[in-house]
Amino acid sequence: MESPFKPDILKGKVALLTGGGSGIGYEISAQLGKHGASIAIMGRRKNVLESAVSALQSHGIQAIGVVGDVRKRDDAIKVLEATIKHFGKLDILVNAAAGNFLVPAEDLSPNGFRTVIDIDSVGTFTMCHEALKYLKKGGPGKDPSIGGIIINISATLHYTATWYQIHVSAAKAAVDSITRSLALEWGTDYDIRVNGIAPGPIEDTTGFDKLAPKEISSSREKDPLYKLGEKWDIAMAALYLASDAGKYINGTTMVVDGGLWLSQPRR
Ligand code: HXC
User: Fold this and answer.
1) Are 151 and 29 contacting, i.e. CB atoms less than 8 angstroms apart?
2) Which atom belonging to ligand 1 lies closest to the Cα atom of 206?
3) CA dihedral of 148, 153, 156, 162, whole degrees rounded to 10
4) Are the beta carbons of 207 and 100 closer than 8 angstroms?
């Protein structure tokens, strides 16, 4: 589907996306790039990054891939330094790296719980923390009057409770809390806007393949509220938040799920 945004709304901007090589992260990379941004993507798998970078470049997007694991602070530092070395600055950080699997709480080991918290919550904080010096107004290569943007990819699992998702629900609740705290502190001190996006079930993603069979029964698929989202829907929300269209938005997590999380069985 064609974007409703002008193609130059992010002209001259530089974005770094964790988990940017596949799924929702890749689509956000592609749409930020198609609207003028230069793109650095971070991920654990070199081959995935390489094909993502080729695909981005085939659209005329300036792109690099840097291997790294958000659980390792040294990797975060290395990837940020590589981004600055290549593009000279950083305007937008998108934290899209995540881990997930379905498991009943009684079968989940504390280490399994910790692993997802480490990727989703601690990884998000680590990336934000290490990116601060580049994102704040007056950071290297940046206009002294304009701070950067952070977008954290969350979920709606924790708004109520979701079967077999205790680890991810806790992790994403922490992500939403991080979004608000950083919006407050860094919005005030450094003019950085920090927001989140909470996707519903998005077709053609690893998350959907792993989780959806238990979340959505086929009898509900025809209900408008249960229709699947596209990666494009999430990327458009990211464009809105990353561009000047979102200049007065700070500390919110935008739900992009067609209203699904509100729903209850019809009486
Ligand atoms: C129970 C499991 C498990 C499973 C792993 N563990 N998979 N426990 N059921 N299916 C436990 C292990 O037993 C281990 O604990 C601990 O978790 C760490 O496992 P590792 O395999 O060593 O971890 P690692 O190789 O680092 O892999 C991380 C991962 C993996 C999260 C487990 O799934 C991953 O890399 N995923 C990244 C890709 C991904 O999931 N993307 C989808 C994101 S979708 P013990 O105690 O045995 O040592 C998403 C959507 C959110 O986030 C919500 C949408 C609505």
Assistant:
1) no
2) 42
3) -150
4) yes
pTM of the model: 0.95
Tens of pLDDT along the chain (267 residues) come to: 899 999 999 999 999 999 999 999 999 999 999 999 999 999 999 999 999 999 999 999 999 999 999 999 999 999 999 999 999 999 999 999 999 999 999 999 999 999 999 999 999 999 999 999 999 998 999 888 899 999 999 999 999 999 999 999 999 999 999 999 999 999 999 999 999 999 999 998 988 888 775 555 555 655 666 789 999 999 999 999 999 999 999 999 999 999 999 987 676
Do 8 and 36 meet the contact criterion of CB atoms below 8 Å apart?
Answer: yes
224 C-alpha to ligand 1 centroid (Å): 31
Predicted interface score ipTM higher than 0.90: yes
Chain position carrying tokens 């010096």:
133
Residue whose CA lies nearest to ligand 1 atom number 4: 101
Alpha-carbon torsion, ordered 26, 241, 146, 71, to 10 deg: -50
103 touches ligand 1 (CB under 6 Å): yes
149 burial type by CB count under 10 A (0-12 exposed, 13-18 middle, 19+ buried): buried
Ligand 1 atom 15: residue of nearest CA: 112
